[in-house]
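Worked example 2:
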Amino acid sequence: MKLTTALRNTRATDIITAAGTNPKVKYYNGAESLTPAGTLLATLNITGALGTATSGVIDFNETCTQTNSSHVGGTPTFALITTSADVAVATIPIPAEMTFTGTIATGVDVTLTAGCTITEGNA
């Protein structure tokens, strides 16, 4: 299946809308799932909307809060996007669709600077 950029943008916008206001980005290691059994490494609380959709990519809102003392050291294999009430919306595999460099460490903030590419149906 191949999708136009406009359709990939629509899918990205749907994820942003479903996440609602003040969603969370949770970094896990383990098997990618909407109900993860892996280890939660870090939770970022986004202020406002998750981000914007441009060219089939979710450009994350980089304004977030986190409690780095609660981070668990490790290398994330996916991110789980949830609503502010922790309802699962989508998973994003790392590094296939979301860039993440390095590891997560206790006491160190996670920097959210990269976008998420919706690769399904890329033309």
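Helices lie at 5-19. The chain has a mean pLDDT of 88.
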